Amino acid sequence: MITAERKPLEEIIEYIRPFQKILLIGCNECVTVCSAGGRKEVGVLSSLLQMSFLKQGKNLQIREHTLERQCDPEYVEELVSMVDGVDAILSMACGCGVQEICRRFKNKPVFPAVNTKFMGASERQGVWAERCQGCGNCLLGVTGGICPIARCSKQLMNGPCGGSTSGKCEISPDVDCAWQLIWDRLKALGMEDRYEEIIPAKDWRPGRAAGPRKIIREDLAE
Amino acid sequence: MMEDFEPVIIAFCCHYCAYTAADMAGSQRRCYPANVRIIRVPCSGKVDVIHILKAFENGADGVYVAGCLEGDCHFKNGNIRAARRVAYARKLMESVGIEGERLEMVNLSAGMGDRFAEIAGRITEKIRKMGPNPIRNTIRPVA
Amino acid sequence: MKTADPFQTSNRVLVIGGGVGGIRTALDLAEAQKHVVLIDRANAIGGLMTLLDRTFPTNNCDLCTISPTLSESSRSQYIELMPLTQVTRLSGEEGNFSAQLTTAPRYIDLSRCTACGECHKQFPECVNFNPGLDHRAPTCMRYPQATPQAFSIDMSRCSDPKALAACCPAHAIVLDDRQTQSEFQIGAVVMAPGASVFDPAAIDSFSYGRDPDVITSLEYERIMSASGPTQGRLMCPSDGRTPEKIAWIQCVGSRGMQKGAVSYCSGVCCMFALKEAIVTKERFQDSIEASIFYMDMRTFGKDYELYYERSRKDYGVRFVRSRPHSVFRKNGQGQLTVTFASEDSSTMNEETFDLVVLATGFQIGAETRQLADTLGITLNPHGFAQTGAFDPVATSRPGVYACGMFESPKDIPETMTQASAAACRASAHLPAPEALSESEDEQTSERDVTDEEPRIGVFICDCGESIGAVVHVPELAAFAAKLPGVALAESVGHGCSRESMSRIQEAIVEHKLNRVVLGGCSPRTHEARFQDVLQRAGLNKYLLEIANLRDQDAWVHLDHPDKANAKARQLIWSAVMSVKKAHALADNYLPINRDVLVVGGGVAGMTAALRLADQGFRVFLAERRSMLGGTANLVHRTLEGDDVQAFINDLRQKVMSHLRIQVIFNAFIVDHSGMPGMYTTGMQVGPQMFYRQIRHGVTILATGALPRRPDGYLLGQHDAVMTQLDADALIEDAPEKVKAWDTVVMIQCVGSRQPDNPNCSRVCCQAAVKNALRILEQNPETRIFILYRDMRTYGFQEDYYLKAREKGVIFVRYEPALPPVVQAAGSLIEVAFTDPVLGRSVMVTADALLLSTGFISDDESTEDLATIFKIPRTSDGYFLEDHIKLRPVDFSKPGFYMAGTAHAPKNIRESIAQAEASAARAMTMLSRENINLGAATARVDSQKCAACLICVRACPFGVPFINADGYSEIDPAKCHGCGVCAAECPAKAIQLMQFEDDQILSKVSSLLERMVA
Is there a contact between A54 and B95 if contact means CB atoms under 8 Å apart? Predict the structure, then answer.
């Protein structure tokens, strides 16, 4: 899933300071699952903003609404009736959602309320970790199912650097050395020979290097 | 002005301990300040961060969540979760400039009528000294 | 009300006496699906307790604690209620009696009587309710909440029966009503006829009956009672002025003091007087001076010592240790004069009081003796039922049981305990019924109110003075009437009385109410009652919200009535706002596992196990030691001289050989899980400590207390110093040593009634007297000194106290501030103490020093068990019962009961009674096939669910799962209702029923709204 974290309150407050009526929109997909922008976080943020403005003697009007998914136009359409009455829109979705809202409502200021972080997995309740950078050319098949691009600090392709100590990365003892993980796993699988294969220099074009990407399914596209 | 200040305090009380203790304070006629208003919940773990924030947003001068003693939760660990949420909510409050000390987690058992009254008295006094919730005066009057 | 008995066999129990004891017995039997015939000589049930204003130690009014019980009894389909009825013959034998019942004419057709009170109004001179303070009457309803709710007429006192009959708008008065006789086949009899109050008119010197300002404690109750002759205004009967000084005189008619008095102790009068003194100060005026004249303050019950301390420290009640000689009014004086000798001088003192209350004791009246004769049971020399030494409710006739005051003088909790014990014993004579499925027997049609605009009814109790004295109820009702959505708001007096409940029920129908707010006492105790009312009125029971105006407002803010009133308005407002969001819910049911786990293999645990096993239930008895018997193993004789070891050996033998009891030795409880009715408890067992799990539906905790061995007085340092338990063994095993003792000193209250163990250990006074008498049996020449603070030989134990005095045992009182001083003198012990009568210090050299060390709670073990089972304890480490008066063996957790000294110190006989009571209470649960779990379960809105797994991970019981449709599902039968998932769900897709977010948030906002009051 895409993970996100709520922005510092001061930043959000600065965005909406000039406005009276705000539409605060949550998203029931990824940001709900990572507890950053679902119905509940919408409620929490709304209350915090309310209090913050009340403290300055200002009465903010916030309308709360959570969409099934902000990155699909049909869902965004739900907002049409609500948007007219407000001065600005605050979105708690990832960057995709925020932009979709901007695209649909050209005359309304739209602001993000979360920082979109990474594509990750939940390690356990309340903890999410980066797992994928969307390089466009998946290597997991040769790296024992552990991604050196997302999980090695240096994105090394052929084994660890000299900073790997006792299985940990030199940047922090909390970060596992991805190459240690890869090695351990290949060994456990009896596939140590894979480690011997040299991975040639990575072609970054399927990733961001060739500009913004798009996927078109011809059979589905209209 | 501060002399006359009567804080309003919301106490979320677990049915199994604090709420029973509050009743027991009653049967022992153990008086405590009338500033405390109790909301019964089945477990302190039921208290949502939003409930706490909404209380402050609506003008509460103090809030406390009262759960069972550690290890005594009827639902294993609801009180521990409540304590974590209270700590988190305090940070949220600080971020909007409301003192975190206005919110507290307390633990007691059903038999502690006296302690309930003591806590109610202590928290009321603490909040009285802190003065009103900073947003209280700007809240729009209701009904 | 009459249920046709399908069998016409002996499948039922005859309960004689409709006081709290008889009602408790009947209810326990009925809840266990045994048929009961409940008869009472009077025209309504309720007994003595309904005359009381408030009960100790919680000082709440009795009507509201008793009336839920009362209505329950009249409603129950298993109880046939026959007022005005007596037994006139009992033939046959246990299991198959034939009883002849004679019912006196009521002259009122109950099916027509609406209890409108018209006859009462038109013949006001005819009301007989307030004993001794009001005059006799032909029509008489004993108290406003009477069950059955109807009047009765005493025809012999009616001068114009026709006029009386004509005044009844319902034509319910039947002038030619006749006495009827009926014959019942019954399996067992429980006698709970109660006792009567000593009439102090027999004592000339107290002026009772001649001076209106000398009254009995029961009459004082009526004066304080809101339903009494003065409507709860405290006044001197002579001229209506408010008394400034009130004296209580203890032991009137008890402890052999006056003419016609009995020799035993009536057991409850001390607490009775303390309560009256406290309530007087609390409710009327703190400036009223309350003085209690007493001999020994006998506050031996659970937490009673704390109550005594509070009366002194917090309320300033004055205690005078003296026996007043006389009470009289000097010519022309407004006040009464009391003459008394103080303890430290032989001179007579005189003091004046406005009101003198005589704490009159209890006796068995002629009618009850007659009843005993009819039933063919033996009475003891005092006229009370003779029951077994280790069989506290069994009379001399098999199949006939006795409980309550009729067995010996006792207070309400002990009466309740014995009543349940009697139910346990009686039910053994009936065949076991088939388990009842609860969901089947509540078939009521409910009105669908989903689409209706809220029409809220607000009903506010004054609870007598409990709420009414602090909160202005009519004003509060007027305030509520103006709130949006409120269709009706009114005050209802005692809301939980039959009368008010049926009024509420009618109002719901009449005003088409679809939501109800009740302002009264705690929902913890009374929610179920009022939910029933809604149900009877055709509303779903969850459309109710209770504002806790009593326990959490009036009682705790009585020092600031203005604030209490403001808060009451806020609470009512909040309840109104919240109930608007309520909607109809259905209850969930679960099957019950009918096995029983008893923890603790002492007398209480073994007795409970045996009683349940005898009635067909499988019992697991877990004992942490490798032997059964507990503390009783250390005791050889009772005060009455019965052989404890013979009894224990017999009991142990029965338990070990019982086919349905499995004893698990060396068992340490380590974990516990499950739902009401289906629990699993894990224990480590045996020397290898292997792990074992027991599945059970009911748990009885009988883990006992510890005999105390405190430091001090050279205990453990000198051979001549021992505890009463050590001495008990020595007298039994080495009488020759005891025979050689010239002088023995005993010190009472060692390790009890002190800050680290503030309560009374209850058993030590009897232990001291017992050992003194046994020592004298060995050597009548032994000089024995018993140094005491208050001798607490309650009930018939007083006989032995007297006997010890007669045999020359010297009782010397000491003050806790001036305890005896002990030092070694070779093999002897020197004890120095102050004799308050002689007023000087005395030194005694003794061969033995016996310390009455009593009990202390087994803090470590109750703490562990409380944590594992999630059950509450008192501050001094005993288990805490659900209701100190009315549910003395039940935990608040369903299916959990307690027995023996784990509840509070008590002697063997009392432990047995409580064990039998816990068995009876357990049977009420085990007789059902399933248990109602209520409706507070979590519900998922699949539209909102993001299938994020947070609830799956957060649930402490692993209930939610992501179903085949891809959203979270929570099985209501498994959900425990904590609401953790609802609080953590990031999509706000989960709501906990009864505690939904919008309900909580509307409470939050309405409790904070600043009102223009």
Answer: no
Q: What is the pLDDT confidence band of residue B143, given thresholds at 50, 70 and 90? A: very low
Residues of chain A with pLDDT > 90, as a percent, come to 88
In chain C (1013 residues long), the average pLDDT of successive 10-residue segments reads 46 89 88 88 64 51 43 60 90 94 84 64 52 29 42 74 79 84 94 91 89 91 72 84 94 84 93 92 83 96 93 93 91 90 79 95 93 96 96 97 96 94 95 62 73 95 86 96 96 82 93 96 85 91 96 93 95 96 90 94 98 96 96 95 96 96 96 89 92 96 95 94 96 95 97 94 97 96 97 96 96 94 95 88 96 94 92 92 85 91 97 98 89 88 95 93 95 89 97 96 91 45
Q: How far apart are CA C197 and CA C239, in angstroms?
A: 26
The answer to whether A48 contacts B49, with C-beta atoms less than 8 Å apart, is no
Give the model's pLDDT for residue C930.
83
The predicted complex's ipTM stands at 0.96
**CATH, domain range C198-363:** 3.50.50.60
**C interface mutation test: which of B6, B20, B88, B127 has the most C CBs within 10 A?**
B20
What's C596-704+858-926's CATH class?
alpha beta
B27/C551 Cβ within 8 A? yes
Q: Tens of pLDDT along A146-181?
A: 999 999 999 999 999 999 999 999 999 999 999 999
Write down the CATH number for the domain with range C9-104+180-195+364-430: 3.50.50.60
Query: A82: domain CATH number?
Result: 3.40.50.2300
* C944 contacts on A by Cβ (under 8 Å): 28, 39
Choose one of A118, A142, A162: the last residue of a domain.
Answer: A118
Q: Choosing among C948, C953, C998, which should be mutated to test the A contact, i.e. which has the most A CBs within 10 A?
A: C948
In the numeric block, the tokens 């477990």 are attached to B43
Which is nearest to B63 in space by CA: B33, B45, B34, B37?
A: B37
pLDDT of C258: 72
Q: Where are the domains of chain C?
A: 9-104+180-195+364-430, 105-178, 198-363, 455-524+532-586, 596-704+858-926, 707-855, 937-992
Residue where a domain stops, chosen among A77, A92, A118: A118
pTM comes to 0.75
CB C194 within 8 A of CB C385: no
- Chain C contact for B40, CB < 8 A? yes
Cβ-proximal residues to C747 (8 Å cutoff; 6+ apart), any chain: C713, C787, C819, C820, C831, C849, C850, C851, C852
Which residues of B are less than 8 Å from C56 in CB distance?
none
Chain B residue numbers touching A52 (CB-CB < 8 A): 96-97
C interface residues, A as partner, C-beta within 8 Å: 944, 946, 948-950, 953-954, 985-989
Q: Give me the domain span that covers residue A147.
A: 133-209
Return the residue of A nearest to B57 by Cα: A51
Q: Do C456 and C485 form a contact (C-beta atoms < 8 A)?
A: yes
**What is the per-residue pLDDT for C431?**
82
Q: Which residues of B touch A48 (CB under 8 A)?
A: 53, 92, 95-96
Nearest residue in chain B measured CA to CA from A42: B50
Q: Which residue has the higher pLDDT, A53 or C435?
A: A53
- C-chain residues near B28 (CB < 8 A): 58
Residue in C186, C76, C183 with CA at minimum distance from that of residue C429: C186
Q: Which of C953, C954, C986 sits opposite A40 (nearest CB)?
A: C986
Domains C105-178 and C596-704+858-926 share a fold: no
Instruction: Write out chain B residues lying below 8 Å of C881, CB-based.
Output: none
In residues, how long is chain B? Answer: 143
Q: Which candidate from B54, B78, B114 shows the least CB-CB separation from C1004?
A: B54
Asked if residue A124 is part of any domain, the answer here is no
